[in-house]
Write a structure and sequence with these properties.
Elements: E1 14-16, H1 24-33, E2 39-40, H2 49-59, H3 66-69, E3 75-76, H4 85-91, E4 97-100, H5 104-113, H6 115-118, H7 128-142, H8 151-168, E5 174-177, H9 183-190
Parallel strand pairs: 1-3, 1-4, 2-3, 4-5
Helix pairs in contact: 2-7, 5-8
């Protein structure tokens, strides 16, 4: 009796290194439109709780087979994918790394109004694996949910992350991108044709 080996072909073509609330919702929609979808971001964790479980286990020291886990995704943006951008860059050496950025003050205000507000202690944010992943987000990036209340501290964490990406991304692969700039710089970086439709600005707080 002979068997056939199962070959997993992972198709990640764009790697997002930017934090949430930097236009990642708009970028995900744009990548979908350009043929780089589906795009994995934090919002998908509610529907794909197996991925939330995987990320939680990985943070506790368990290995993760990212090629297998992301076999159905062509791009990543936002948390939790941005935590693994270096690993992803090694796994998919042809994929550009996109660092979404915005004005630090605007970023902070957006975080406080949105994800920080509705993930306050005691809030029901959904399934247990997702709630755990969100808790890890605050602990990892800021030292705890309460530390985000310190505006200067939170902005310093944000700027430090961006600078680390700039300094450590493989040469020639980093694309620093502001979604307010629309299609042209994104399409230029991806060698894609500019769509004949408005850029999907989806600033959802």
């Amino acid at each position: 009796m002979t068997g056939r080996a199962c070959v997993i072909v992972s198709l990640v073509k764009v790697i997002g290194a930017g934090w949430g609330r930097t236009g990642t919702t708009s970028l995900a929609a744009a990548l979908d439109r350009l043929g780089y979808g589906p795009c994995l971001r934090m919002r998908e964790m509610w529907e794909h709780q197996d991925l939330a479980v995987l990320w939680n286990s990985h943070h506790e020291g368990s290995p993760a087979d990212w090629r297998a886990a992301l076999r159905d995704w062509q791009s990543t943006v936002d948390w939790p994918g941005c935590w693994q951008w270096r690993e992803f860059a090694d796994l998919w050496p042809a994929a550009p790394v996109i660092l979404t950025v915005r004005d630090p003050a605007g970023w902070y205000d957006s975080v406080r109004r949105s994800i920080h507000a509705w993930t306050a202690p005691g809030q029901d944010v959904g399934p247990a694996p997702v709630a755990r992943l969100l808790g890890y987000l605050w602990d990892r990036e800021f030292g705890g949910w309460e530390r985000v209340l310190d505006r200067d501290h939170a902005i310093a964490c944000y700027e430090r992350h961006n600078q680390e990406v700039r300094e450590t991304c493989p040469p020639g692969r980093l694309v620093e991108y502001t979604v307010s700039d629309g299609w042209e710089p994104l399409c230029r970086a991806l060698a894609a044709q500019v769509p004949g439709e408005p850029f999907p600005h989806l600033n959802q707080s």
